[in-house]
Amino acid sequence: MKNRLEEILKNIETETSQIKKFLKKTFMKYDRNNRRNDINNHYNEDPPSILEENNRSNLLHAYYRYIWNSNFSSPIEKNLHDGANVIDLGCGSGIWLKELSSEYSNSNFIGIDINEMFPIEKIPKNLKFIKHDILDGIPYEDNTFDFIHLRFMIKCFGPIEWKTLILPEIFRICKPGGWIEIMDLDTNLYNVGPKTENYSRKINSMLGPSKIDVDQLQDIMNIYQDLGITIMKEKINAWYPFKSQNSDKPFEMTSEILNSLYPIMSKVLNLNQENYAKLLEQILEEVAKNKTYGKTYRIITQKLTL
Ligand SMILES: C[S@@+](CC[C@H](N)C(=O)[O-])C[C@H]1O[C@@H](n2cnc3c(N)ncnc32)[C@H](O)[C@@H]1O
């Protein structure tokens, strides 16, 4: 009788553990799918093609590199020449990594993204891309990377995810003495005229709700401050001709970026190509007259040495 009871109890235990495993797997899958849908739902209309999306990311990359006159602000140049481990989280089209891996051939570069938008052309040998959801953790050992980079990722996670998951994971995989750089946009536009404001409001609504307020950048800074040395740099992104630099480049690039948004914005605004071009002309005139600008930030932190 005792043996029989023990056998039944053992069976129940095995079954319970199997049920638990099954439920965990199902919930994880459900959660992951929801997250992917969340990302795709960013576009209320049909999501743009990967090629369109990558072209636009590459244009934005060129614009911000021009504005900052660099691809990063952390004092890591020498390490990159000597040989460092670098990771870009939420790397998108991978353009930032492609440029750095070509320039610093002694270093190793890894890009992670939940969506596979990685370059299809030949990539340098020291560059690798991985499709992975970083909310499932970052699949590397503690103290692996000399430089961790994230750009335009702030809205992808909510405050709790940043505090309890993303930042602890980033600090875990960063080597003591390594650098972490988060670059992001202030979503406000300054000196903005009515046509430009309406257009930018439409872009923001098309992108869907942000999971974090701009003010929460300060929260992230505070957490950083507790964990390491933090510097915040700010740049003005002029949309208008930048006369002080005697250059029309920001204006030309702004115009190119707005043009590249045609496949998405024409649907949102219900405009054909001709009318979209007319609207852009009016917006660019307004931008030049008002001297419209935005701001980007780079939050740079060094993980304290043990
Ligand atoms: C606004 S894009 C920025 C892309 C790139 N960092 C850049 O500067 O061009 C945000 C990127 O984060 C990726 N992403 C969002 N949530 C993610 C997650 N949980 N895990 C990995 N990648 C994620 C998206 O697929 C997208 O490529």
From TrEMBL:
An annotated Gene Ontology molecular function: methyltransferase activity
Superkingdom of origin organism: Eukaryota
Protein name: S-adenosyl-L-methionine-dependent methyltransferase
InterPro entries registered for this protein in UniProt: SAM-dependent_MTases_sf
Species for this entry: Rhizophagus clarus
Keywords in alphabetical order: Methyltransferase, Transferase
Lineage, highest ranks first: Eukaryota, Fungi, Fungi incertae sedis, Mucoromycota, Glomeromycotina
Gene Ontology biological process terms, A to Z: methylation
Keyword Lipid metabolism on entry: no
